[in-house]
Amino acid sequence: MIGGVLVERTIKEVLPAVHRNKEGLEEVVARMKEALESKKKEMTEFELKYKIRIRKGGGGGADEEGSMKEASAQGVLVGPASQ
């Protein structure tokens, strides 16, 4: 059974294909890692060139969003739901 499909093949026939697929996936992973490192380097150079600082912390954006919701909700009256 291969991927939920019953096939008539022997291990001798299937094993080389599995090894080729594994090698191909390892090559793809290696290329992706290289691309990731390249992009990290490019991003660091861009940050240095334009003097960009990235804030690392989770509290800043949520507070601003919450205060905006409160400001827009001011003055709203809600009456009884049932009549």
TrEMBL record:
Coiled coil as UniProt keyword: yes
Alphabetical GO biological process terms: protein folding; response to cold
Coiled-coil segments: 22-49
Region entry Disordered, spans: 56-83
Keyword Chaperone: yes
GO cellular component: prefoldin complex
Protein known as: Prefoldin subunit 2
Similarity-based family: Belongs to the prefoldin subunit beta family.
UniProt keyword list: Chaperone, Coiled coil
Originating organism: Hordeum vulgare subsp. vulgare (Domesticated barley)
InterPro entries documented for this protein: PFD2 (IPR027235), PFD_beta-like (IPR002777), Prefoldin (IPR009053)
Gene Ontology molecular functions: unfolded protein binding
Pfam families in the cross-refs: Prefoldin_2 (PF01920)
